[in-house]
Amino acid sequence: MLKAVPGTNDIFAQAKEYPFREPVFRYIVSTAEEVLRGAGAQMVYTPIFEYLEVFQKGVGLTSDIVVKKEMFVFEDRGGRLLALRPEPTASIVRAYNEHGMKVWPQPVRLFTWGPIFRGERQQKGRYKQFHQVDYEALGLSDPLLDAEAIALMVRIYKTLGLKHLEVKLGSVGDPEDRLRYNQYLRELFGPYAKDLSEDSRVRVEANPMRILDSKSERDQALIAELQPKPMLAFLGPAAQKFHQQVCNYLDRLGVAYTVDPNLVRGLDYYVRTAWEVHHAGIGAKSALGGGGRYDGLSEMLGGPPVPGVGFGIGIERLAIALEQEGVALPADPCPTLYLAPLDEAAKIEVLALAEQLRPKVNVEIGYTPKSPRKALEEALKKGARYVGFIGEDERARGVVTLKHLETGEQRALEPLQLHSLFEGPEIK
Ligand code: AMP
């Protein structure tokens, strides 16, 4: 029997693990959608694969995704390389440029949700296919948008019922600040390259900032010993002012955060604002979600300058956090009416009646004939308000026997009477 690829998951109501239960997914996506639409953002769906260059140029040649070959790359028939998206931002910026959104009133605020693919080694909370809700505000470089994005992200978590959040806010400066910082780190780590993990040894030349973010204990021990100065100490005046304004705006909005002078983010395209949201339940090393500003990304994709800021919320990891905080999900709606056939010939009568009443009334039916007692049990199990039977007698009289499950009241009703009953105020 064939099985799913390790690191990919089927999402359905009864899934054993909480993060893969469809109602949890639906709760997260619908809440995020409500918050983001309510704030005037517009939904966009981009393809889940693009030309490889979109991601290569977007995430940067030195990011883990490219260096560690975490992208799923394949060829189209013409031999052109395509990749499954390892993150949504580059696609959204590509779409913004492709559809001339630059002439729309700015900023253009877009959001999406869907699967993301990374060939990572499998561990809890880390999958090859996972899902993100993603928000991007494009076309304006103003710290107000950074503060709004952070506030919206926090609002999504809080609306879902999460309490123990920590927003870590930093700045990765402007490209020239990062150049200076990387040079400083290169000189600091260079002599100790042999003590670093294999991945980080490559980073000394390519992108030493990423060493600070390393999950390897070996690297973390060396970092503790060398005590590098933080990125924040290398900000130029413009980036410093921008960072201070984001802080001021968040203070004014009453959004709690802690400044993390060492915050670095996995993708190369970030400039200035970078943040992560952490949750005690999923461990200090993993973020619940993250975001940042990426003012140079559009140019990397061959487009005009388009500043932008946005965030990604990992759905599975968020589900783990919700489970750990014991957040109750909204109950699934129960059927209003459960209609059961008492004999073979009633099967189609039951379906025909259900189809007449749907979608106004939430009707479920029994698919095999059963006794009235069994049908009643089934209706109770489903949490229905009414159970209806059709058997030989009902067919002869052209009625349905309807029982109100709470009061026990039972009546034989003709279809028209049934319709008017369900039109009354009693039925929601
Ligand atoms: P990133 O795009 O790396 O900043 O990731 C944003 C968020 O996506 C993270 O904070 C996680 O919640 C989630 N995430 C990233 N990688 C994975 C993965 N391999 N499996 C599950 N969730 C992930």
TrEMBL record:
Catalytic activity: tRNA(His) + L-histidine + ATP = L-histidyl-tRNA(His) + AMP + diphosphate + H(+)
Location in or out of the cell: Cytoplasm
Principal subcellular localisation of the protein: cytoplasm
GO biological process, one term: histidyl-tRNA aminoacylation
GO molecular function: ATP binding; histidine-tRNA ligase activity
Family annotation (Gene3D superfamilies): Anticodon-binding domain (3.40.50.800), Bira Bifunctional Protein, Domain 2 (3.30.930.10)
Listed Pfam families: HGTP_anticodon (PF03129), tRNA-synt_His (PF13393)
EC number: 6.1.1.21
Keywords of this entry: Aminoacyl-tRNA synthetase, ATP-binding, Cytoplasm, Ligase, Nucleotide-binding, Protein biosynthesis
Annotated family: Belongs to the class-II aminoacyl-tRNA synthetase family.
Subunit structure: Homodimer.
NCBIfam families: hisS (TIGR00442)
Name of this protein: Histidine--tRNA ligase
UniProt source species: Meiothermus taiwanensis
